[in-house]
Amino acid sequence: MDEPKPRSEVKLKIAVSGAADTGYCAPDALEKTKGLGHEIASRGYILITGATTGAPFWAAIGAKEADGLVVGISPASTEREHVEKYKLPMEFHDLIMYTGFGYSGRNLLMTRTADAVLISCGRIGTLNEFTDVFEDNKPIGVLTGTGGAADEIEEIVKKSHRGPGKIVYDSDPKRLLSRVVELIQKDKAAAV
């Protein structure tokens, strides 16, 4: 019997974090976020979302338009709770994992699952995801010009006096993703 062949390469997992309520986002934030999802999928990476509405949902739409793989991490315990209690979508995801941990627990699992987190627009939940990934010293990409928390993070980091972290800021989705992937590759090379 032949020995199984090892996997040649594990795909990168990129999470997109952003506002579920997009009323506070810049006018072009959702199109930019959709472009971010499309770019993630076009490069063969896996998109991770909080299985939610708003900016992450638009990233999922973009990824699926590029025939990408989208994994959602839900705060709910079951599909029924996901839809009925949390009123979250099922569409544009290939797999949704039900954590039963509420939003804060879901946020931690989402950021820990990803190799990097990209932030678009955002409110307090996005800041929670940002601090989780910042504390884990993982690469972060901030899509600037999208409004909300995304446009405040650089100032928050300066005022925190904790150093710059592994954060890149860019208003262009393609360029942002390229810069974040460079950080991921540096991390992976250093771990070998």
Automatic annotation (TrEMBL):
One protein family per Pfam: LDcluster4
Top-level division of the source organism's lineage: Bacteria
InterPro entries: LDcluster4
Protein name stated in the entry: LOG family protein
